[in-house]
Write a structure and sequence with these properties.
The protein is of the alpha/beta class and 386 residues long. It has 14 helices and 12 strands. It has 2 domains: 250 residues, Type I PLP-dependent aspartate aminotransferase-like (Major domain) (Aspartate Aminotransferase, domain 2), CATH 3.40.640; 130 residues, Aspartate Aminotransferase, domain 1 (Alpha-Beta Complex), CATH 3.90.1150.10. Bound molecules: pyridoxal-5'-phosphate.
């Protein structure tokens, strides 16, 4: 399906709402019926239509159709956060006594779920270095039900060979879930590579304006309708009609924002690589990236996240660089209009800083929609303080 059709037309039926160009925010908790038979139909299968807005809602439905189509999936659910999409999708696939193989260092709240919450229910997780597919195979047990992927991750960008892991999982009847937040569906479509469930934080590129927190989960109608009827409705973590509307608004400009971000990021990566105060630039679409060939094979492009490793002996130098930035905001998250800096040393105690640990000297940058020259000038003056 054409991306332009998906973003501009799919799911929209303007005659239903006064030919308004922008779909309405249907701010209603419940929906009325004329006949008991009509009500019964939805009471027995709420997935089919509009009964109550914890489940389906017309504004949300337009958004879900577009998000499913962007992923090349049959169906989508939108959650109140990416973390909720992670939790509901994993919970839906495991039961007591099951085992999960996860790529190591997944998104922090996915890790927290694997390490703290799931063990309380007898579900265990083995982490593997996902850069080698054999590591997944070695970690499999007779009770492994799920392989959890995140490719690339959002700090050092290691990839997994998605097609190879899917082939392994299918041969053993194991479900695969991937966190696709880094690429968004514009740059990577894991469902088309055979992954069962694909999730992303819509807070990042889909929303795109740093004003809404949400998550997306896509997959087959069979899997998604089951998750809807159980984890989604039970946890009650869907988005409000207004948040759905903000996400629809974000979607209209998704490809053009990403195109601009990717162009600027390449320019800035080139500039950073030549700077004497920088030891290493980590970016999946850089030819020096260790998995560059795999990145080119399974991703159409990369977005605006990259990481620099500063030449520094002291934490004060890393801090001085970040504190000196004038236009990059120091903040978590990414995917909005504004460029960001996130130093790894902000997540640790000062006393634990070790200059010999490359990770401690890493600063993740997100390149937003500003002019690249404007951002380079900012980086230049901040690097000069080193
Ligand atoms: C932000 C993020 C999440 C969580 O999404 P929220 O919308 O913040 O809950 C999950 N995975 C990755 C890779 C992320 O960057």
């Amino acid at each position: 399906m054409d991306v332009s059709f998906i973003l501009n037309e799919l799911g929209e039926d303007r005659e239903q709402y006064f030919n308004a160009v922008a779909p309405p925010i249907v701010q209603s908790s419940n929906f009325a019926f004329n006949k008991v038979s009509e009500m019964r139909e939805l009471m027995l299968d709420e997935y089919k239509g509009f009964l109550y807005s914890r489940g389906n809602n017309p504004t949300l439905s337009i958004l879900q159709q577009k998000l499913a189509a962007l992923d090349g999936a049959e169906a989508a659910l939108v959650f109140g956060s990416g973390a909720a999409a992670i939790f509901a999708s994993v919970l839906s696939q495991v039961k007591q006594g099951d085992h999960i193989v996860s790529v190591r260092d997944p998104y922090s709240w996915a890790g927290r779920m694997f390490d703290v919450i799931l063990p309380r229910f007898g579900v265990t997780t083995t982490y593997v270095d996902g850069t080698r597919t054999e590591n997944f195979e070695t970690a499999l047990q007779s009770n492994t039900r799920l392989i959890y992927l995140e490719s690339p991750n959002s700090f050092t960008y290691e990839l997994q060979d998605i097609s190879a892991v899917v082939k392994l999982a299918k041969s053993r009847n194991i479900v695969t879930i991937i966190d696709n937040s880094y690429c968004s569906p514009i740059y990577q479509q894991p469902i088309k590579m055979g992954v069962d469930l694909c999730l992303q934080s819509a807070t990042k590129y889909i929303g795109g304006h740093s004003d809404v927190v949400a998550g997306v989960l896509t997959g087959s109608t069979e899997m998604i309708s089951k998750i809807f009827a159980s984890e989604y409705m039970n946890v009650g973590s869907g988005v409000s009609p207004f948040a759905a509307w903000l996400l629809l608004r974000g979607l209209r400009t998704l490809p053009i924002r990403l195109q601009r971000i990717s162009e600027s990021t390449l320019k800035i990566v080139d500039w950073l690589k030549k700077h004497p105060a920088i030891e290493r630039v980590i970016f999946p679409m850089d030819p020096d990236f260790p998995q560059y060939e795999l990145a080119k094979k399974q991703m159409q492009d990369a977005g605006g996240l990259l990481t620099i490793q500063l030449k520094a002996e002291k934490i004060e130098q890393v801090e001085r660089f970040c504190d000196s930035l004038q236009h990059f905001l120091m903040a978590v998250s990414w995917g909005g209009h504004e460029s960001l800096a996130f130093p790894a040393c902000a997540s640790m105690n000062v006393a634990d800083f070790k200059a010999e640990e490359p990770r401690h000297r890493m600063v993740r940058l997100y390149i937003g929609l500003e002019e690249p020259g404007y951002l380079i000038k900012d980086l230049e003056q901040a690097l000069a303080t080193l």
